[in-house]
Amino acid sequence: MSSNVIIHIMKRNLLIVTSVLVFIIIVISIIAFQKPKVVQIITSPGEIVPISVQNEISSSRSTAIVLAARKVSPAVVSITVIQERVVTTRPFMSPFADRFWDDFFRDFFPPRQYKEQIQSLGSGVIINEEGDIITNAHVVEGATKIKVTLPDGRQFDGELVDINRTNDLALLKIKGKNLPYATLGNSDDLMIGEWCIAFGNPFGFLLEDAQPSVTVGVISALNRNLKSSQGEGREFKNMIQTDAAINPGNSGGPLTNALGEVIGINTFIFSRSGGSEGIGFAIPINNVKKFIALSKENAKKLISEDKIEKIETKIGLTVSDNNFTLMKKYNLTTEDGVVVVEVKRNSIGTMLGITPGDIIISLNNQRPKNARDFARIAESVTNQIDMAINRQGEQIRIFYRF
Predict the structure, then answer these.
(1) pLDDT tens, residue by residue, 166-183
(2) ∠ CA(365), CA(366), CA(372), 5° rounding?
(3) Which residue has the higher pLDDT, 310 or 300?
(4) Residue 36 falls within a domain, yes or no?
């Protein structure tokens, strides 16, 4: 064999050996620098879950619903309300079911009235960093004191800015720093069947926890028009129907889409049991936006109370024309009638149980146009008073014969 052939074979073998060594080095390098799989969770004897698998599971659990809940929950507040209610009792009831005898016994045994305080709880949602809060009117109407509690435990005194009893909406305000708030969405582009999330504080007195509850459902129907069945005078238009559970205490809380945008305010349910049966309703957020805009306009109508004309009357009542300043002061629910601002002691008004903030709708079948007109009607009172008043949305008739 010639020396040239031998040299060629040796070069070929050297090339092969070199290639093998390079391959081995590359493999060893890949293995050396590969991230090791460290066991972190033992789910059951003999079964282990690597970190990489655990991360995949965590990612799959963080759905859009979870992310929306994390986004909105800090802005959902508990609203504790102290309300004052006037209770009328009849010390003696006529044994006869007849109007004449009712009036006869009422003359000798006039009704007695006393005030009692009741505590109630609802929900609300902070809508901007200035501390504006939206809730339902029925959560705060008649309130003498409003406390707002955030999920982080902070408590604030709530100020009632505006209320619309007919549409069951109220605007509150708190003063604080670094306030969380939710983003308002668009209720005009909702789709029947899309996911929605209801937030609130159901049975808050029992849970004693400011963290909101989260329930999930779908948009069941849109543009539902309903009227209150209790004769409360409320009208609900274009309501959102959902099967997300809404329970006592959820009133005023937000209904959001899967992006965490507020699309409605939870308001009431249809239920035979008193609990959720999958038929709940929320006020569309676009309706709420109109209410907020109107409230800002109404705020410009505020006038100093010392500039409001007050008219004293023959029957011991001092009244004023109904206006936005008095509506805000007394938490009134209508712009009709004249407002009682003072009741003289030991007067006919005291005997009838009239209180400041009562709205007088009519006196002896005459509807006063303003405070001076009411004073004129009161001058003609002789032997009886037949008065219709509105007291925090409740229609009350007072009849007394001298």
Answers:
(1) 889 999 999 999 999 999
(2) 150
(3) 310
(4) no
**Residue 78's closest CA among 149, 158, 143, 172?**
149
**Which is higher by pLDDT, 105 or 334?**
334
What are the φ and ψ backbone dihedral angles of 311, each rounded to 5 degrees? -115, 120
- List, as one string, the DSSP characters of 157-182: E-EEEEEETTTTEEEEE---SS---P
* φ, ψ (nearest 5 deg) of residue 135: -150, -175
Give the catalytic positions in this structure.
138, 168, 251
User: Closest Cα partner for 174 from 84, 288, 77?
Assistant: 77
CATH number at residue 262: 2.40.10.10
> Which structural domain range is residue 109 located in?
71-173
Q: pLDDT, tens digit, for every residue of 293-306?
A: 988 877 766 677 77
The amino acid present at 70, given as its one-letter code, is: R
Q: For the residues 97-102, what does the mean pLDDT come to? A: 53
Is 325 within the bounds of a domain?
Answer: yes
Q: Is 46 exposed, middle or buried (0-12, 13-18, 19+ CB in 10 A)?
A: exposed
